[in-house]
Amino acid sequence: MKHFLNTQDWSRPDLDALLAQAAVFKREKLSGAMKGRAIALVFFNPSMRTRTSFEIGAFQLGGHAVVLQPGKDAWPIEFDLGTVMDGEAEEHIAEVARVLARYVDLIGVRAFPKFVDWAQDREDKVLRAFARYSTVPVINMETITHPCQELAHALALQEHFGTTDLRGKKFVLTWTYHPKPLNTAVANSALTIATRMGMDVTLLCPTPDYVLDERYLGWAQANVAESGGSFAISHDIESAYRGADVVYAKSWGALPYFGNWGPEKPIRDQYRHFIVDEAKMALTNDGVFSHCLPLRRNVKATDAVMDSPRCIAIHEAENRLHVQKAVMTALLR
Ligand code: CP
């Protein structure tokens, strides 16, 4: 049984097929591909785009979506084995995943890191537990990566450049300031899909502490070796932006400070100037800007950048609907 946990688990032809199918769904909204089928959307964290696009996507395919928020409108879940469950959790993932799989044909999971211990968070325990116990395919709706966002971004770039071949495009993934330390998922994912597509990718971040986990650096290196792109890390804003075709922004917390965010805050506060603004975008090759959203205006990117015709974030957000319909359809085959 195939899950959709990371794009890195899927072959390039399979990813290309998902993107091609998404483009079809963008033209032809309705289909009966999920007629009589259902998906459970399990949210441990808030969402606007993911929840809406999955629910509407299932509806447009003739299927049904059920949203569950463990600890809110569903029982809190235990994930460790051998635990004496005398705390908050009312049931174990071993039962939850297997019971849900008797009702539905797909399970989507959103479970962000706990931001206390990256060594634990990087194991992606919640998603892996659903995949382990579920007897139906599991879809990652953002955990420590965000593969649905990757596909939506790739489709938006293919649309913008008018080609499915993104090789040779200069792609900058820039860290931006945010008042809180955020998940690295979208950054890990942007790096993964941009290198997979053969682009010349620069990871721009303020200091070595903000470099991403070695797993994703390894994926990036492996991907460019196969796709013919390139990958570099930079802490220099001007050289990273110069000549860029794509600027993708995301804020994230520095991995060495997981669980000890106090000392990280004054460091992060020094780098508010990483905001994406018109002066930086003027260094690019008439480049496009995007972000996964939600985005704090005039913190991560200025109003002028967000309102520019070169901003494709809304197109990318729309594409979540189309790519997720392609993913659900592919997994139901
Ligand atoms: N980009 C994204 O996943 O948005 P939500 O957090 O609103 O779902």
UniProtKB/TrEMBL annotation:
Site (Key residue in conferring substrate specificity for N-acetyl-L-ornithine versus N-succinyl-L-ornithine): E90
Swiss-Prot/TrEMBL keywords: Amino-acid biosynthesis, Arginine biosynthesis, Cytoplasm, Transferase
Recorded GO MF terms: amino acid binding; N-acetylornithine carbamoyltransferase activity; ornithine carbamoyltransferase activity
Domain Aspartate/ornithine carbamoyltransferase Asp/Orn-binding: 184-330
Sites where the protein binds N(2)-acetyl-L-ornithine: E142, K250, L293
Record's keyword annotation contains Amino-acid biosynthesis: yes
Gene Ontology CC: cytoplasm
EC numbers for this chain: 2.1.3.9
Any coiled-coil regions, as ranges: none
GO biological process, one term: L-arginine biosynthetic process via ornithine
Localization, UniProt: Cytoplasm
Catalytic reaction list: N(2)-acetyl-L-ornithine + carbamoyl phosphate = N(2)-acetyl-L-citrulline + phosphate + H(+)
Chain ranges of the Aspartate/ornithine carbamoyltransferase carbamoyl-P binding domain: 2-159
Pfam families: OTCace, OTCace_N
Major location (coarse): cytoplasm
Binding annotation for carbamoyl phosphate: S47, M48, R49, T50, W75, R110, H146, P147, C148, Q149, C292, L293, R320
Pathway entry: Amino-acid biosynthesis; L-arginine biosynthesis
Residues found modified as N6-carboxylysine: K300
Superkingdom classification of source: Bacteria
UniProt family annotation: Belongs to the aspartate/ornithine carbamoyltransferase superfamily. AOTCase family.
Job description of the protein: Catalyzes the transfer of the carbamoyl group from carbamoyl phosphate to the delta-amino group of N(2)-acetyl-L-ornithine to produce N(2)-acetyl-L-citrulline. This is a step in an alternative arginine biosynthesis pathway.
Alphabetical list of HAMAP family matching this protein: AOTCase (MF_02234)
Name of the protein described by the UniProt record: N-acetylornithine carbamoyltransferase
Species assigned in the record: Thermomonas haemolytica
